[in-house]
């Protein structure tokens, strides 16, 4: 049900937009078979992920070039396998010369294929098909603007995936230290190595969310709420990278003669809980004050003494994670770094 809830707006956009584009092309433009109008809507809506406006331009221009070249060549040389190969080759060559984008080139080629194989030569002219493509592109953007998915639900879902993964790695690493369990530490490291995909999905989702707030009047007055996700994006990515190094060093430390102390595991667990607090507060649309307070408490904690090499590295990485997450709550880098207990504090020496 949750997955359907996320894709339902796109289904509605495609369904309603296709019907409207078809009606406009037939009733207002007088085109008897406006094949490219609903197809343009489907491609427009389906190519979200933060670049829809640019891709709509590529779509409309690409269809226009493909249709124009296809119509011209088919009218000269007719249809058939050899003619199709020539039409596609020449259309895509023109596209490469005009624009190096893969989407643009592919759209030109596919449009030329449609013209050469499906659309009768004596049917509508190339100009009418270009108009159909433009109509579908405009209707697709309008459908996204007037029937939008919630930009905050999209951003919140994907950031939750990133912070959940971070929390899981920290929690497993903490348990591995407490139990001196190398298998558990290895599991934490394996989990950490799979987290980059979650970061990339969040970045793409954030671009989609920003785009929705840009083109949809329904969300113009809520852009400030999305700004918290924008603030968190880069610091959370950096924090997760540091967590990967932490997990690797946790595994290494358990094989040393001086394994990390339980106090270090407790600090990991506190950072893990702070990451979950950050997730909850951002999802609720609140300033992440509780997460910030939890992180400040970890930052002020004194370091354990008599540590092995890997444990020292773990502490360094954990300190970096704390700074990154403090920045995700809205603090600047200098202010966040200043909250850490100094490394040369005399209390840390024997």
Automatic annotation (TrEMBL):
Record keywords, A-Z: Membrane, Transmembrane, Transmembrane helix
GO cellular component: membrane
Domain Integral membrane bound transporter: 21-142
Localization per Swiss-Prot or TrEMBL: Membrane
Membrane topology category: Multi-pass membrane protein
Keyword Membrane annotated: yes
Identification of the protein by name: Uncharacterized membrane protein YgaE, UPF0421/DUF939 family
Species this protein is from: Nonomuraea maritima
The organism's taxonomic lineage, starting at the top: Bacteria, Bacillati, Actinomycetota, Actinomycetes, Streptosporangiales
């Amino acid at each position: 049900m949750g997955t359907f809830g996320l894709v339902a707006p796109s289904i509605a956009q495609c369904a309603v937009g296709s019907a409207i584009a078809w009606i406009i092309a037939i009733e207002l433009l007088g085109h008897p078979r406006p094949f490219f109008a609903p197809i343009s809507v489907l491609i427009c809506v389906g190519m979200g992920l933060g670049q829809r406006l640019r891709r709509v331009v590529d779509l409309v221009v690409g269809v226009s070039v493909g249709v124009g070249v296809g119509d011209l060549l088919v009218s000269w040389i007719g249809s058939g396998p050899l003619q199709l190969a020539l039409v596609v080759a020449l259309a895509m060559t023109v596209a490469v010369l005009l624009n190096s984008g893969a989407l643009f080139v592919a759209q030109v080629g596919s449009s030329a294929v449609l013209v050469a194989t499906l659309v009768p030569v004596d049917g509508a002219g190339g100009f009418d098909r270009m108009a159909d493509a433009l109509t579908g592109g405009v209707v697709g953007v309008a459908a996204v603007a007037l029937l939008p998915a919630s930009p905050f639900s999209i951003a919140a879902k994907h950031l939750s995936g990133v912070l959940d993964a971070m929390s899981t790695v920290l929690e497993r690493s903490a348990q591995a230290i407490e139990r001196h369990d190398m298998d558990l530490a290895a599991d934490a490291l394996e989990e950490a190595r799979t987290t980059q995909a979650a970061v990339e999905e969040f970045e793409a989702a954030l671009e989609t969310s920003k785009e929705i707030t840009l083109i949809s009047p329904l969300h113009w007055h809520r852009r400030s709420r999305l700004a918290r996700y924008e603030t968190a994006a880069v610091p959370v990515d950096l924090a997760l990278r540091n967590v990967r190094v932490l997990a690797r060093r946790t595994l290494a430390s358990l094989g040393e003669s001086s394994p990390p102390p339980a106090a270090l595991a407790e600090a990991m667990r506190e950072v893990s809980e702070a990451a979950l607090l950050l997730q909850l507060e951002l999802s609720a649309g609140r300033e992440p004050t509780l997460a910030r307070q939890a992180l400040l408490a970890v930052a002020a904690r004194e370091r354990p003494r008599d540590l092995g090499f890997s444990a020292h590295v773990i502490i360094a990485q954990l300190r970096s994670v704390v700074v990154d997450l403090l920045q995700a709550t809205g603090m600047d880098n200098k202010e966040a770094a200043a909250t850490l207990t100094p490394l040369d504090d005399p209390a840390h020496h024997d």
